Amino acid sequence: MKKKITLSGSLGRIGKPLTRKLVALGHSVTVISSNSNRANDIKSLGAIPAIGQIRDTDFLKSTFKGADAVYTMVPPANYFDHQLDLLGYFKNLGNSFAKALENTTVDHVVNLSSIGAHLNEGNGILKGTYHVERALDGLPNHIGITHVRPVEIYYNLYQFIPLIKHQGIIGSNLAADNVNVWVSPEDIATSVVEELEAHPGGRKVRYVASEELTYQEVASILGSAIGKPDLKWVMLTDEQLQGSLENIGMQPKIAAEMTEMYAAIRNGLLYEDYKVNRPKTLGKVKLREFAEDFARAYENS
After folding, report:
1. Residue 23 CA from chain centroid, whole number
2. Alpha-carbon distances, residue 3 vs 66, 95, 193, 244 (angstroms)
């Protein structure tokens, strides 16, 4: 059945392939963007642009009107803004989505959440995703909700390019033999499409992952792609990581929360629910494929 689907998230790394896939399947797709310059790009993909702010509940209500399904996501925040209340940012947008959906024809919501969203503490910068899920779960029961929880996305690895270039190492407050789970934006988009086309009803959580690797395996794959096959993963202390993040200008509170998030990978807290609900099938895009993009970014940086 062809649906009218409204997507938040503009044409980002997930939004662009998501829009393409849905349009190709024949759905009528409206894409919300805060950037008016994106309107023509959205139209070129065969979708309808809706230009406005997702914090504007009235705008969201008008955009959701007549839709069968909605994809919600909280856009990335600026961690270098020292005035940012990160938790408040997530709570406000979660409430904005929920209020806009209360009295609409929408009967299915797919919410892009995150690994760690089952926790209201101990998950650092991911704490806000817990509150977004709770806000949406408060909607009337006739609205089916799927929370898609991706693991760490490959493109987060771009942050290590300066460290590799200037110090010849890659590392964080994790050990080389610690395992993390990674996912491609393309595989996230595929999963979101599957959920938007389905209608399970009720409340559902779906984890999305592409590959499980130790950090030294990550270092070796990226190192081989950039001509540094001996690249080693180096473990920092929590204090060293937080200090380095603050030194590059990150808001100290957010630097502390990011450090806590990675520590939660190290101690197993972040992945406790994932391990119980691990997806039966991993995504198609593996790190070796992403490493080609990483190598190009490394070369051009």
Report:
1. 22
2. 10, 25, 12, 47
Q: Cα dihedral angle (250, 252, 256, 257), rounded to 10 degrees?
A: -70
pLDDT digits (tens, 9 = 90+) for 33-81: 999 999 999 999 999 999 999 999 999 999 999 999 999 999 999 999 9
* Cα dihedral 36, 15, 276, 156 sign: negative
CA distance readout (Å), 4 to 26, 36, 43, 71 = 10, 22, 16, 11
What tens digit of pLDDT does each residue of 197-223 get? Answer: 987 689 999 999 999 999 999 999 999
| C-alpha dihedral sign at 97, 79, 123, 284 | positive
Question: Helix or strand or coil: residue 90?
Answer: helix
Separation between Cα atoms, residue 77 and residue 109, nearest integer Å: 22
d(CA 189, CA 17): 6
What is the distance in angstroms between the CA of the first residue and the CA of the last residue of the chain?
Answer: 45
